[in-house]
Amino acid sequence: MERFFGGVIKHRKKILVCFIIMLVIAAICKPFISVNYDINDYLPEDVPSSVALDVMEDEFDGGIPNMRVMIRDISLAEALEYKEKISEVSGVTDVTWLDDSVDITVPLETADSDVVDNYYKDGTALYQITITEDKVLTAVSDIRDIIGDENSMTGSAVNTALATSSTVDEVRKIAIFSILLVFFILFLTTNSFVEPFVVMAGLGLAVMINAGSNLIFGEISFVTNAAGNILQLAVSLDYSVFLIHRFEECKGEQKNPEIAMKDALVKSVSSIMSSGLTTVIGFLALAFMRFKIGPDLGLALAKGVAISLIVVFVFMPGLILLTAPYMDKTRHKVFIPDFRWFGKIVGKIARPMAILFAVMIVPSYLASINNSYYYGASHIFEKGTQMGDDTAAIEEVFGKSDTYVLMVPKGDTATETDMVSDIKKIPLVSGVIAFVEQAGAEVPYEYLDEDTLSKLESENYSRMVISVDADYEGDETFRLIDDIRKTADKYYPDKYYLAGEGVSTYDLMDTVTADMTKVNVAAVVAVFIVLLLTMKSFALPVILVLTIETAIWINLSVTYYAGTPLFYIAYLIISSIQLGATVDYAILLTERYKENRQILNKKDGTVETLRNVTVSILTSGAVLTIVGFLLGKISTHGLLSQLGMLLGRGTVCSLFAVLFILPGFLYLFDRFLIKRKGGINNE
Fold first, then answer.
1. What is the pLDDT of residue 442?
2. Is the pLDDT score of 146 beyond 50?
3. Cα gap 118→176, rounded to integer Å
4. b/e map 55-79, b = 16+ CB within 10 Å
5. Prediction pTM value
6. What is the mean pLDDT of residues 295-306?
7. In which band, very low, low, confident or very high, does the pLDDT at 492 lie, cut at 50, 70 and 90?
């Protein structure tokens, strides 16, 4: 490594130029990366609901209603006028209302009251609207202009449109606040006015190169777009800080800055590489998810951390040497006190704290796995947001509602009639629109108008539109979907297709719950193996992984005891991110403890270790905490907000575990962990 670092220092000017060129290329590429805000698009292609959507797209022109619009205080004639206006909006392929099910030219009292109440109640009209994916943003905006803010809209199309428009602005705010707060923290924890700018220059370069290189994916998810850059900034900050602090230490021993830099690189490469590799591995574990938001975020973050490591070891030495004279000239008093006092306090309480922490392992784990969950997008915008309030207003008048589409092989109208009859008997099914319902099994196809026929019949399939009085997800909804699938399978074994928002959420639940064990085990095992290889000890990886995993369980158990449902996707993601991002702190503290134990006894080694690393750990941890809480507070997107709060709280849990608990474990198990040179006192 010395020869490699010698080459990096020797050719530092050429390296600086190369990285600046890469920065320009990345900036050019970034605008060409598209962002997808639809959760259901990330379902595996082979799940039943995804296959059903593909079949429906091939066989029929119209899609599944993805929007509900409620307009108050209108007559039947006005309702028809609104239907016509909405139908003319670009991107709207279908608008279903009362006139599609009953003859509204005759008194409504003569019609089926249940059908009427689904679409028109107390002078209020409810429309089921289908919008094409490529026109969601403009269509939702145009429909809002037609109905006004006093009326309401909800559905997955509105979810996607609001997530797209709001997240862009919110990410910008989060980025600005994060950068300002990072600068503030760096000014407090460094002793030069120039050093924060040096650290942020390297970080900014790595983040921008990674963001531009996401073009290789073509498209990224809204989670990656919103959290990827700031997460990379937060988890990679400590690498540059560690290197600069080592450089300052080496300058005290070696006046030649180039030799001091080479020494700093050699001394810090083990801890930084171990930290970086475990972070990369933690993020790569997300790639084992079948739900494709996991690989999307995991690969982008792993790539980002890898780029940050390259920047630290290749770009930063030249930048630090270039700016070292200016850092020396702008020295200021240290605002953060020496942490020897903190080391003494922790040294006194470390052992009882470690025992208490060990007692918490099992209860926190059990609580963490017994949370209640949201699986889909229906709870992303809760009350207090426009969509949350609109959804509540619609449900207050018309109740919860969703629409499914069932497709079966065409031709056997008698079997279709029997199946539709059974489906209508299923609780929560409020209506079925089918060819055999509209025309009767005995009416020949040629007697139906072409428009009606095209919506219900294709060359190969009969399509039935099933209206249900159910939410988009929940135990009741999932039982309903099971009942419909069992009924369809009874008449058309393995030959039917069922699609809809609730159906996709059901398949999403199946997919992400199956991902849980796979992702968590992959992350833990991979990180353990990296630590085993780098630390050449079996006990140390066990202690480090168990310490951080318990911090994760404590973080997740808070939501259990608070009775707050978790977005399951956030639960999966935070488990890998908290492990990958904060195991760094445990590695840094352990490496310094091993180093100090070569010359100090256990007690003094613990105190000196905490004096050495607390500022660096707190600097990185504070940034990660602040970034998380900013994402949690600023984002109106429920999934992103919850992910941010879990990240902020989880980092605090990890910081507490590393600074207060891990020293106790190292002290208690010292004889099994440390190979001492010479006759250092074991106590």
1. 46
2. yes
3. 47
4. bbeebbebbbbbbbbbbeebebeeb
5. 0.81
6. 92
7. very high
Report d(CA 24, CA 499) in Å as an integer. Answer: 45
- Residue 463 phi/psi, 5-degree rounding, is -115, 135
Long-range contacts of 198-204 (CB under 8 A, 24+ apart): 198/240, 198/244, 198/319, 198/320, 198/323, 198/327, 199/237, 199/240, 199/241, 199/244, 201/319, 202/240, 202/311, 202/312, 202/315, 202/316, 202/319, 203/233, 203/236, 203/237, 203/240, 203/308
Rounded mean pLDDT of the chain? 86
Residue 658 in tokens: 């590393």
pLDDT reported for residue 453: 66
Q: Mind giving me the DSSP string for 57-79?
A: HHH-S-----EEEEE-S--HHHH
Cα–Cα distance measured from residue 519 to residue 501, given in angstroms and rounded to the nearest whole number: 26
d(CA 294, CA 42): 9
**CA angle, residues 470, 381, 283, in degrees to nearest 5:** 105
Residue-wise pLDDT for 250-283, tens only, equals 888 878 889 999 998 998 888 788 878 888 888 8
Rounded to whole angstroms, the Cα distance separating 580 from 582 reads 6
Residue pointed to by tokens 């590695």? 587
* pLDDT tens per residue across span 328-351: 889 887 777 778 888 888 888 888
Specify burial of residue 467 (Cβ count, 10 A radius: 0-12, 13-18, 19+): buried
> Which are the contacts of 234, defined by CB distance < 8 A and separation ≥ 6?
178, 581, 620, 623, 624, 627, 628
Q: Decide yes or no: CATH 1.20.1640.10 for domain 2-38+161-378+506-673.
A: yes
Contact 234, 185 (CB under 8 A): no
Q: Is 235 helix (H, G, I), strand (E, B) or coil?
A: helix
- Contact between residue 101 and residue 452 where contact means Cβ atoms under 8 Å apart: no
State the amino acid at position 187 in one-letter form. Answer: F
Does residue 219 sit in helix, strand or coil?
strand
Architecture in CATH of 67-154: 2-Layer Sandwich (3.30)
Pair of tokens at residue 215: 């073009």
Q: How is domain 392-505 classified at the CATH fold level?
A: Alpha-Beta Plaits (3.30.70)
Give the pair of three-digit tokens for residue 7. Answer: 């080459």
* CA–CA dist 531, 538 (Å, integer): 9
Name the pLDDT band for 448 (thresholds 50, 70, 90): low
φ, ψ dihedrals at 245, nearest 5°: -65, -40
- The distance in angstroms from the start CA to the end CA of the chain is 35
The pLDDT of residue 147 is: 93
2-38+161-378+506-673 and 392-505 agree in CATH topology: no
Q: Is 275 exposed, middle or buried (0-12, 13-18, 19+ CB in 10 A)?
A: buried
Give the start-to-end residue ranges of the domains of the chain.
2-38+161-378+506-673, 67-154, 392-505
Nearest to 541 by CA among 605, 587, 609: 587
